[in-house]
Design goal:
With 235 residues, the protein is of the alpha/beta class. 46% of the residues lie in helices and 13% in strands. The chain has one domain: Beta-carbonic Anhydrase, Chain A (3-Layer(aba) Sandwich). A hairpin with a 5-residue loop joins β4 and β5. α5 crosses α6. The radius of gyration is 22 Å and the shape is globular. Bound molecules: cobalt (II) ion. The site of cobalt (II) ion has 7 residues, from α5.
Length: 235
């Protein structure tokens, strides 16, 4: 119990300060949220979403995991993304990596860490895609910093691969996608200057999908596989 005494004391102090500063603060938040941003960042304790962006309660919807990954088969990420985009209508989606990321460093090493190896494989895919560029960097620290940046770029691309973002981009209020890197050593957040719309357009010829109501013809006429499986040779 003693372990959280400090947390509870801090909380009461914070409530008091907020109420003094703005008596309507909590009433307003209780009415609902309309955050402008979705933050996708690393779970690292040194990269708190609100602290490094100067945003307060109600301003930023947050998803964090090891190494700020956008894994298109991650139900947690997809649920957060869909809710943020389709229900909350966030305007800016920030993928925020950070230099000195333990997850990225672990992925770059060929050591076994246990279950997490299966998560880190997604970063190893980034290494594979950019191996030529990474091998050209002789300084290991610089190579890891570059991998952190490339990982962010790839995760923004992964956003563009989801039907959630593709549909939102065709809507009235398309969200903007951003790739950022935070430097733990000096606290500065750097914009990688990624143009989200461009990313979506570049990937379109491979990853674009259309909702049934957007397709020509009647989607309900789909009758399943045309081949009869029973006619296929065994084995
Ligand atoms: Co990290």
């Amino acid at each position: 119990m003693a372990g959280i005494d400090e947390i509870l004391t801090n909380n009461r102090r914070w409530v008091e300060a907020k109420n003094t500063e703005d008596p309507e603060f909590f009433h307003r938040l209780a009415d609902g949220q309309k955050p402008r941003y979705l933050f996708i960042g690393c779970s690292d304790s040194r990269v708190p979403a609100s602290g490094i962006t100067g945003t307060g309660p109600g301003e930023m919807f947050v998803h964090r995991n090891i190494a700020n990954m956008v894994v298109p088969a991650d139900m947690n990420l997809l649920s957060v993304l869909q809710y943020a985009v389709e229900v909350l209508g966030v305007q800016d989606i920030l993928v925020v990596g950070h230099y000195g990321c333990g997850g990225v460093a672990a992925a770059a090493a060929n050591k076994q860490y246990g279950l997490i190896d299966n998560w880190l494989v997604n970063i190893r895919d980034v290494v594979r895609l950019h191996e030529t560029e990474l091998l050209r960097i002789t300084d290991e620290k610089q190579r890891l910093r570059r991998l952190v940046e490339l990982n962010v770029t790839e995760q923004v691309q992964n956003l563009a691969k989801t039907n959630i973002i593709q549909n939102a981009m065709r809507g009235d209020n398309p969200p903007r996608l951003h790739g950022l890197v935070y430097d733990i050593a000096d606290g500065v957040l750097k914009d990688l200057g990624i143009d989200g719309r461009e990313v979506v357009e570049e990937l379109e010829h491979i990853y674009a999908t259309q909702a049934p109501h957007e397709q020509d013809g009647d989607a309900s006429s789909y009758e399943g596989p045309t081949e009869d499986p029973s006619e296929q040779a065994a084995g």
